[in-house]
Design a protein that fits this description.
Layout: E1 2-7, E2 13-21, E3 24-31, H1 38-51, H2 54-67, H3 72-84, H4 88-101, H5 106-118, H6 122-135, H7 140-152, H8 156-169, H9 174-186, H10 190-203, H11 208-220, H12 224-237, H13 242-250
Antiparallel strand pairs: 1-2, 2-3
Helix pairs in contact: 1-2, 2-3, 3-4, 4-5, 5-6, 5-7, 6-7, 7-8, 8-9, 9-10, 9-11, 10-11, 11-12
Length: about 250
């Protein structure tokens, strides 16, 4: 028995099963890659996405879209892969297409907001997070993401309210506590900030930013040794955070 790839003459490969009978090869049947369903390509793409193979994932999502160009979640998935590749304009284009097919998908607005935030379009990001929350008041990541943008915009009280809502909806997410702790530190609530960041570390001991925030809190409390220890722990987990937090550490208390 032999499985052989055959060119159809139109740059399409067919996979044909040949069996040997009395010394002769008999063609049993052929299968084209087009017989793979769009959903199967999506499943393959998501597996590759989880493995970090963004190019491979995008190729699978492309195939799914070529089979069924009217499924919004196919564009959503490809947009997510492009967002992870930091191809934000392409990601936004995919999210726009998904929304043009179905305008009532909160996850799409939430992720488009993240892409817009990454491009520096903070107002556009907040608008998307607002829409996601309007469609689904329990869209927990949208509250956290909106809080993060509001924090960047200097709207600390609104950011705090968003983080508190996110924690109420999911009290076991390390990043939500770290973000709320960061805002509490900025507001001067060092005890509240310390409790939040310690809770974040308890939930995720490898959360680098939490150690950096802990270092800034200890520094604000005048505990230099503990501050330096936690900042070094942060940098050992993620060296990319060093420039950001060293700048914050040099700011006046």
């Amino acid at each position: 028995m032999l499985l052989k790839a055959i060119d159809s003459g139109q740059n399409i490969m067919r996979y044909c099963l040949l069996i040997s009978i009395a010394g002769m090869l008999i063609l049993v049947g052929c299968k084209s890659p087009q017989s793979v369903s769009a959903d199967e390509h999506i499943k393959r793409g998501n597996i590759l996405l989880d493995r970090g193979d963004l190019e491979g994932a995008i190729a699978e999502f492309d195939r799914a879209i070529s089979i069924n160009p009217n499924q919004p979640f196919y564009y959503f998935n490809r947009g997510n892969a492009r967002k992870d590749k930091r191809e934000f304009d392409l990601a936004i284009s995919d999210y726009n297409k998904a929304i043009s097919i179905d305008a009532n998908l909160p996850d799409v607005y939430d992720n488009r907001g993240v892409a817009r935030m990454s491009k520096g379009d903070l107002d556009g990001a907040v608008s998307d997070f607002n829409k996601a929350i309007a469609l689904d008041p329990n869209q927990v990541n949208a509250y956290n993401n909106r809080g993060y943008v509001r924090q960047q915009q200097g709207d600390i009280d609104s950011a705090l309210a968003d983080y508190e809502k996110a924690i109420a909806l999911n009290p076991n997410d390390a990043y939500f506590y770290n973000n709320r702790g960061s805002v509490r530190r900025m507001k001067g609530d060092l005890e509240g900030a310390l409790a939040d960041v310690n809770r974040s570390i308890a939930l995720d001991p490898k959360n680098a930013e939490a150690y950096c925030n802990l270092g800034l809190i200890y520094r604000a409390q005048g505990t230099s040794a503990a501050a330096n220890l936690n900042l070094e722990k942060c940098y050992s987990l993620d060296a990319g955070l060093k420039s950001k937090f060293e700048k914050l550490a040099r700011e006046p208390k």
